[in-house]
Amino acid sequence: MSLHLMDILWLNQCSTMGQEEHCVICGDKTSGYHYNALTCEVCKGFFRRSITRNAVYSCKNGGHCEVDMYMQTKCQECRLKKYSEAHGMNSRGTSAH
User: Fold this and answer.
1) Is the pTM of this model over 0.70?
2) Which residues of 44-70 are buried (b: 16+ CB within 10 A; e: fewer)?
3) Confidence band for 36, pLDDT divided at 50, 70 and 90
4) Nearest CA to 50 among 85, 89, 76?
5) Which of 30, 66, 74, 81 is most buried, with most CB under 10 Å away?
6) CA distance 30 to 53
7) Domain ranges, residue 68
8) In terms of Cα–Cα distance, which of 50, 53, 20 is closest to 35?
9) For position 66, which CATH number holds?
């Protein structure tokens, strides 16, 4: 017995129903895809402001800070670096999902 593509897609959708997706930057609950990455509103705003202001940040820990939803505001350089590494996140546009 083989599954058809529609059956596979339906099963995949059912298996993810009720599960929250998490921001690839800080791990908080996401609001959708922004700048080609699945992020929360806080991280989306930080990335947008950093790009529009051409911000340059410096890390006091040599660029090795942990970025999560509790520490996301502590080191701006490491946070912005994590954005650029996150699934092709870029400033050229957003994906509306």
Assistant:
1) no
2) bebbeebeeeeeeeebeeeeebebebe
3) confident
4) 76
5) 30
6) 24
7) 20-85
8) 50
9) 3.30.50.10
